[in-house]
């Protein structure tokens, strides 16, 4: 229920193009910012293709999830994702078992982007394209 509400609000927000962050941040449907140990709502993400579904509830142990506005966008491609890819060893040393990158791209785009960045076995590129 919570996840579908967040999806609808994000879709509305993305369509607005104006005060997207303000509208979402003041919607009251979530707790921001999340803290370590906070439980995420169960949401399906997709890796590689639409049939490879991964639910956030199935992620176990210490997991880092970060979101980017879009695959192949200049800042995400040059700064955001590479910073996490370079930090994999340091994060693993702190007990992080999985690093997941989420964007509103389809899983094919996320897979291609992950490969282009050399993220294999480091960061899991996941798409949520149904917004």
From TrEMBL:
InterPro entries (alphabetical): PRX5-like (IPR037944), Redoxin (IPR013740), Thioredoxin-like_sf (IPR036249), Thioredoxin_domain (IPR013766)
Alphabetized UniProt keyword annotations: Antioxidant, Oxidoreductase, Peroxidase
The keyword Oxidoreductase belongs to this UniProt entry's keyword annotation: yes
Record keyword Metal-binding present: no
Gene Ontology CC entries for this record: mitochondrion; peroxisome
Domain of life the protein comes from: Eukaryota
Domain Thioredoxin residue range list: 34-131
Pfam families per record: Redoxin (PF08534)
Active site residues per record: 76 (cysteine sulfenic acid (-soh) intermediate)
Family: Belongs to the peroxiredoxin family. Prx5 subfamily.
Protein name: Peroxiredoxin-5, mitochondrial
